[in-house]
Amino acid sequence: MTDKIEKSGRRSFLKILGGGVILAAGAGGVFVGTRTPTKALEPWELALEPNAGVDPRHIILSHAILAPNPHNRQPWVVDLETENEITLYCDLDKRLPHTDPYDRQITIGFGCFLELAIMTAKEIGMKAELQLFPEGENFPRLDKKPVAHIKLSKDENVKRDPLFAQILERRSNKEVFDTTKTVQEMDALNILSAVDANLETGSVMKRDRIEKNERSYKTSRVERNAHP
Predict the structure, then answer these.
(1) Which among 23, 147, 149, 11 has a CA at the least distance from the CA of 74?
(2) Is residue 141 scored above 60 in pLDDT?
(3) Does the CA dihedral 188-193-196-200 come out positive or negative?
(4) Does residue 7 fall inside a structural domain?
(5) Is the pLDDT of residue 213 over 80?
(6) What is the pLDDT of residue 45?
(7) pLDDT in the model for residue 187
């Protein structure tokens, strides 16, 4: 196998630097509507079984590549050379220079990828230490420098994320939403429990932030004009 592989279908694989791929668990299974594809989801469930003899990074990444990303470009490439570590890069050929000139959408997709990776790590009893842009921020566009680095270690006390159970449930639902249905109290509590207790909100007025906000505004105008 090589690290130059043509993609065949959606959610199929993740390229590894130096050669090889990681298949999305259940790759090749396609489903529509609101049905739950029980048979197609079996590979994910089996991968989480103890003593499966699989590199835990493969389990983590096979879930992470199910992350939503702009236009399903799936721009991720990983380096697994160092044991228990994942270095994440952007496949620069997957960027969208006309509709996403500053890689805002692509970067959001990477955020989704990392979130699912961390959720899965917790699910299999591992702590994930995340460092964003370990070699410096890629600005104004993503480049060859790594987007993130994850260091994994066993942690019996790690708290599982209740939202992990929804990874395999996520799909595009084209049905009309029934706005008369209410959210069950327990479901709402489970969602709220997944929010970091240390989460803070606020605003800053530093010059560099203001300049970035101006660029974000200009970027949004480009995106709107590209898709009127």
Answers:
(1) 11
(2) yes
(3) positive
(4) no
(5) no
(6) 56
(7) 82
